[in-house]
Design a protein that fits this description.
CATH superfamily of the largest domain: N-utilization substance G protein NusG, insert domain
Distance between the termini: 50 Å
Shape: elongated
Order of helices and strands: HEEEEEHEE
Number of helices: 2
Helix content: 25-40%
Largest sheet: 4 strands, antiparallel
Radius of gyration: 21 Å
Strand order of the largest sheet: 2-1-7-6
Strand content: 25-35%
CATH class of the largest domain: Mainly Beta
Number of domains: 2
CATH architecture of the largest domain: Sandwich
Length: 131
Amino acid sequence: MKVFLKKALPDLAVILILFGTAFLLYLWRGFPGGGSAADPEATVIVESGGGLYGTYSIRDEETIIVDSAYGHNTIRIEDGAVFVTDADCRDHVCMRSGKIRRRGESIICLPNRLTVRITGKGEDGYDAVAY
């Protein structure tokens, strides 16, 4: 039993450190680091074909239908989140990317040349401050 503990102790220490690091990253990810979409200034910017299609508030529940020369996309804003519900592209990566809620997140549909992103009040501020 003592031999087993001597051999297993370094392995257990590494496993505990990995689990501890993963847990801390999980907690850190949960904190709103860049501002949440619930900010009153948060807006959804929809661009199609390289130009601005529209600007929408993330607080409003809305369905946006984008028909362009490149394709068709349906975007839904509800409960402070934005997601693509329908697209006529072949790969549907934009639909599988899920809901976005925070400033700086985006959904991109390359075949249809569509970009959906969330911006907010603090967007032009500092990325980080070091002391």
